[in-house]
Amino acid sequence: MAIAYAQEAIADKKGLRFGKLIRQAAKRFIDDLARARKRGAPFRFSPEHACHACGFIELLPHVEGKWETPEIRMHRSHVFFVVQLFGFRKPDGSRRFTSALFAVARKNAKSTLASAILLYCQCCENEEGAQVISAATTFPQASIIFNVAKRMVEKTPDLREAYGLETWAKSITRMEIGASFKPIHAKASTQDGLNPSHVGLDEIHAHKTPDLLNVLQSAAGARQNPLWLFTTTEGYTNPGPWAEIRQFVKQLLAGVFGHEADHYLALFFAIDEEDKATGAKADDTFDESKWIKANPLIDSNPHLLAAIRKEAVEAKRMPSKLAEFEIKRVNRPAASANSWVALPKWNACAGVVDLEALRDAPCWGGLDLASTRDLTSLRLVWRVGDRIITWGRRWVPAAAVAQRTERGTVPYAGWGAAGLGGETEGGGTDYAASEGAGV
């Protein structure tokens, strides 16, 4: 089924049902199957491991909503993910993938999938002292994946007996190998004794700082075959790790890294943005024929399509609901809850400014001075024919970079590393840094 799904995605060259990122993921999968058959390959593909994981998950019960069968029947998109995650193995038999992203619009069963995957890891990977963790910024959010897994165990006596599982208020334990499955939120993640083996980070877009991820990753240094499972929809722009993860994944699927990121699996279901390289236009948010790109379960769940249609009616007529609709229903990022300019239109304005060519053109400039915490900003504007061209620079004191990045309010450090701003020494902005800029 996974191979057929990938082949169908690759054949959809016009992007009628599959987004660009899924078509790229499908090609990567097919290419990796070919790599795995070559002598000396860094990994092999094991149908037995892939089928075992799928079989385990499809013995688990549904615990939310009404379904045609009491047990889970994975959608093809879920099978495509699970087969890759557990089917590719290193020469020593361990998983090839130690990091995995499953990004999809809401109500496409990502929490159920994550719960089942983490439960499979606790039961079937047999790591001594395994610490399976469902992590999020708040305890209620962290509990979503955990509670689904807990109810699955409680409803399946055969599962409890086969693996010696016991359920508690905030944990699932397997005494035979000293394994546990717990929810953890940002504040609790600093406690001693953390040594996570398998981590599900739910709604990673909502993390305002990378602190939780950093703490968990540093605590897992001794694990030989960890799993970092990221499940999320899109979100509003914030200083957290999601923007970097998104960019990394898009470059990964585009083949930018070659084989350097063989450890990272990514499926990203979303409607398509403009592609300047091919001339393809961005998908219309309200073209319901495109919704399946972000909502793979539409083809098997008519209630999902009906719900999206209702929300689309309001989003078309209520600007305050447009950004939320784009984020949650078509998995398209938004700058803020009430965007002044649509993000694709804003991004379309990007380009290189040739300052030397503009030297003799009329120019208007503005300089906004700040002292200790905010940016000192310079902005120059030219009108050339019917075009408006603008260029700017920004500076911030080093003390503010450390303070505000740590607090998660503004990602000054990341901006500086990307060449988007300058840093001056000390606790106050050195205005001399702005003198002569643009000259």
UniProtKB/TrEMBL annotation:
A Pfam cross-reference name: TerL_ATPase
GO molecular function list: endonuclease activity
Domain of life: Bacteria
Residue stretches making up the Terminase large subunit-like ATPase domain: 78-250
Ranges of residues in domain Terminase large subunit-like endonuclease: 282-432
Protein name: Terminase large subunit
TM ranges: none
